[in-house]
Prior knowledge:
Layout: E1 4-9, H1 12-23, E2 27-30, E3 34-37, E4 48-53, E5 73-76, H2 80-90, E6 93-98, E7 101-105, E8 111-115
Parallel strand pairs: 1-4, 5-8
Antiparallel strand pairs: 2-3, 3-4, 6-7, 7-8
Amino acid sequence: MLSGIALECRDPRKLAAFYSAVTGWPMVFESRDWISLGPPDASGPAWHLSFQRSAGHQPPTWPDDASSMQVHLHFRVENADLAEVAVLALGATKLTTSPGYRVYADPAGHPFCLVT
């Protein structure tokens, strides 16, 4: 059973704060090098979005034929315009827009999508 996804970054606290604001999920675990967020109403086995300190983390470049995203997150939203304003205010960077989805980079450079 998949229990979660972990993203490497230089500053787990900063990235966890960004994704906590995006998802509304609270912090459920914290150590110096690892922070996990989880749904506030998890009644079964918890699924976590985690952030692991990696001092040498280099963000992927996208789009770039010589590099890849490796993995990226999708967030389903009802109103892409309102969601875009929110993630940009939190520190995201807009990368591209296509019909049905918009691609951004989080503050550590990981690509993610808002999809309708």
